[in-house]
Amino acid sequence: MGDDGVKVRRENRRMREDRDMKDKLEGDRGSGGGYQTDKEQKQKDPSMDPSTGNLQVLNALDGAKTQWYHFTAIVIAGMGFFTDAYDLFCISLVTKLLGRIYYHKEGSPTPGSLPPEVSAAVNGVALVGTLAGQLFFGWLGDKLGRKKVYGITLMLMCLCSIASGLSFGSHPKGVMTTLCFFRFWLGFGIGGDYPLSATIMSEYSNKKTRGGFIAAVFAMQGFGILGGGVFAIMISAIFNSRFKAPPYEVDPIKSTVPEADYVWRIVLMVGALPALLTYYWRMKMPETARFTALVAKNAKKAASDMSKVLQVDIEAEQEKVDEVMEDSKHSFGLFSKEFAKRHGLHLLGTTSTWFLLDIAFYSQNLFQKDIFSAIGWIPPAKTMNAIQEVYKIARAQTLIALCSTVPGYWFTVFLIDKMGRFTIQLLGFSMMTIFMFVLAFPYNYWTHPENNIKFVVIYSLTFFFANFGPNATTFVVPAEIFPARLRSTCHGISAASGKLGAIVGAFGFLYLAQSKDPKKTSEGYPPGIGVKNSLIVLGVINLLGTLCTFLVPETKGKSLEEMSGENEEETGETRA
């Protein structure tokens, strides 16, 4: 059956080539016996029409119906994002445990906690690595190709996830140093996954459902956060039942059993599994046709790869690729005046909105446990043993992920190609601003035990509208509006700007959220502005994000070449 199909396709291709040659010989002559101009040929050839794109292979991708390969690509790219989110956010589940194990102080009325500088490093070092990885691998993806770099990032994530759990040292400082070292390189690999996954999915997708497909890849982040919480619940429940321990206030030493040291290591190491499971399939994916045709300039390879994927015959059209690439309009660099003129405001829009969003999003995510403790949703640490505390923190964060984070992502997936990116981002930032101020101004009201559930509901809504809003759209849009040869680089720059915001949130919120009263601050921390004022600051940041959204263009229903200007004809200037 397969051989017959190949023979039929070959015969069809041969007949079409003969027919095209005959049409060319008969049609190249105009009514006066002369030859038609290039402009007249382009007007007759729909594959050269700027409204439909320059190349047949790109037209075929833009107009392709949703097929099995689309879902395969979503799963392959999405499992990388599952791993990304698991690895980045699981650390917040075990930082309290690390403090109890390695920084216990004899005679202290409260369990040990990580010193400020250590806590900041453990929570933030992976974000620093992610920022560096986004810039480096984003650039490399435009130089070497999306596929070649894709496998490198995945293996780096796998190896460093395992190594993080094997962190060693003869004293606490040694363990924390090796943990931070491996988590930096873990973040470096995770950083590469952002621009590459987004770019690959955008270049594989059709223009009708492209936003939903890219958002679906990003939505796997929600399952990664949820998966981390669920796994931490399971491990802590198993260890707590096997190794009984009294609360800290009953026996400070026995409240942290020696086996607790395995809990955080297992939680960190399991992040390698989903990435390992998809490595083979990630390596089997063909290079995207847009990179092969528009950057590598190999139309034959692009047509061959996409013919297999789409299961249709596609002409190579090498001459058209050469014609497009020879046009100086399509060769400007990232730091050129032409790029600044065409895409400068776009890049400012994608970087500023992602930066502002991640300040709020990561500060809330990484320090949920502190907020929940402040309002009394998690019992005081001294009333629990070490493993029970992990269980309580994981349960609270899992509930937030299940009720708001995950649904928010999938609302975006199903509605982004109907509502548009701009509308969803504007709505998300606006609602986050409103809910943050609702939490902040009457903050003392929310701290009363009878109002805790109401606080959690409104707090959850901020996460819902972050994910049914800018957390998804800031990932989608940079993969759609820049030229193919700069797409991965510009997405990496936008994502790195976001991670810079995450670092500001992760490091800054540690200090900002401390009580104004020096007697009520966490040990080792200077007085801050308090949780209430910190929430007000986050509300203002969300408001700025709302305003910066107006710099971002709408891409709904448009081809990538239409958005980037890569389908403009050389004669475009003479039409005016």
TrEMBL record:
PROSITE patterns: MFS (PS50850). It is found in: Membrane. GO terms for cellular component: membrane. Residues 1-29, 37-47 have a biased composition (Basic and acidic residues). InterPro entries: MFS_dom, MFS_sugar_transport-like, MFS_trans_sf, Phos_permease. Keywords: Membrane, Phosphate transport, Symport, Transmembrane, Transmembrane helix, Transport. Belongs to the major facilitator superfamily. Phosphate:H(+) symporter (TC 2.A.1.9) family. Residues 1-54 are annotated as: Disordered. It comes from the Eukaryota. The lineage of its organism: Eukaryota, Viridiplantae, Streptophyta, Embryophyta, Tracheophyta. It is a multi-pass membrane protein. GO terms for molecular function: phosphate transmembrane transporter activity; symporter activity. NCBIfam families: 2A0109. The chain crosses the membrane at residues 71-98, 118-137, 149-168, 174-192, 213-239, 262-281, 398-416, 422-443, 455-473, 493-513, 534-553. Its main location: membrane. It comes from Lactuca saligna. GO terms for biological process: phosphate ion transport. This is Major facilitator superfamily (MFS) profile domain-containing protein. The keyword Coiled coil does not apply.
